[in-house]
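ingest -> validate -> predict -> emit
validate: passed (alphabet ok, no gaps, 244 aa)
predict: started
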Amino acid sequence: MSRRTDFHIAHAVSAISAAPDPKACSRIFQKTVAAFKIDAFACGEVDLAAPERTVFYAMTWPDSYRRFYFSTGLNRRDPLLEALKGRHEPLTWSELQRDGKTWPIIGTKALQVLAEHGWSDGLAVPIPRGDQRFGLVSLAAGKRRAFSADEKSVLAMLSYCLHERLRNLAPKHGFAIPPLGLTRREIDALRLIARGATDRDVARKLGISPSTAHEHFEKAKRKLKVSTRAEAIAVAVSLAIVAH
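emit:
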């Protein structure tokens, strides 16, 4: 890469790291990766052991594709998620297609929808956190040649930076999509209990009855697929629903 390109990338990394909120962070990232013909992206956390726990910190997919992705259940059979079971390095859609094992999962209709949005390739950047948990930045690209090794490396670096900043911002500023279907009150109850609050403390702070506070937390536990208070707090922290 040229010195000019190196300077712009370094400046983008600095700006993303200092972004005050998720919208500003996403705006800087989107502007930077546009030079690589990246049209849209999604950033979140994936748990292969419990796919329903997937959260999205930011998403710039068009509304039409967002609706399609969730309404058809593609979010539960995304070939990128299947590929993560065996591959932990950045990988392109083209590589998945050549692999031939996971790409057919996407289905004909999904391929048509991708084509309608002008997306011919993309790059998935996983951030391993253990055997089953990954941070994930998924980039959708318009018509372009194959990604070079240098391009993949630069986009991966930018994606790592984006993901880390968004994880830090999400507990305070919220998510692109409500995580796990949790309501605002359920998240508030989770956050207060993670700080050591009792049901009575939660009730007083939220202006509700202790029984309602308890119900909010119990619903949150069910959505998190956990059975104890300690598990709920651990999972909520790991997904950045609750700050450390």
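Residues 3-173 form a domain with the Beta-Lactamase fold (CATH 3.30.450.80).
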